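Researcher: I'm comparing several assemblies side by side, and this is the next one on my list. It has 199 residues spread over two chains. Same procedure as the others: predict the full complex and return the structure.
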Amino acid sequence: MATEKQEKRPMPPIGAWAPAVALGWLIPGGGHLLLKRTGRGALLMVTITAMFLCGLMMRGAMFTPQNGDLLTTLINTGGFIGDVCSGALYLLSVALNYNQPDMAGHVHDYGTKFLVTAGLLNLLALVDVFEIAAGRKE
Amino acid sequence: MPKMNLSHFEAAFLFSLFVSVVLGVVTKRTDRERFQYGVYTFICFFVALFGLGWLMYLGHG
């Protein structure tokens, strides 16, 4: 059984990772492209953008933070954070009024999940960008 | 904006595909490992999809 503790790694300087992470948030895959991981960046860009567009075309709803009981607050605030993680895709779709009201139906429901998941996948990509920029990963 | 009208299976297939690709890209350290993990995740999604589908079908009575 491995009992060795992992060494605590110091936080890299903000200038080393912040531009890549910011670009990665704004444009999915952009952080990887900035760090010269072209193939992975292109794959992330295509996949996350395609997922977001599928969500929009399925007439998925965008979340807005709401107060109420605990479950309502959790779902709506969590969903909003997931949506916002898509960066420019979210900002553009809201600015161009592509955000749909919540409707009943399995396709709309899947669409809403696609939109949130695209943002959450971009969040994973941002963690990857941070690790690459910090020199912890190739 | 065109409208997509997908069945449950088509939507679940697309969801599995997109998530598997991203998980494969961000989790491992070599391209070979990334590809293998992406395929593994996709298969896991499908096993869960069919498993839960049958479970609901049989449990429905």
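Model: For your comparison table: Helices of chain A lie at 14-26, 30-34, 38-57, 70-84, 88-95, 106-133.
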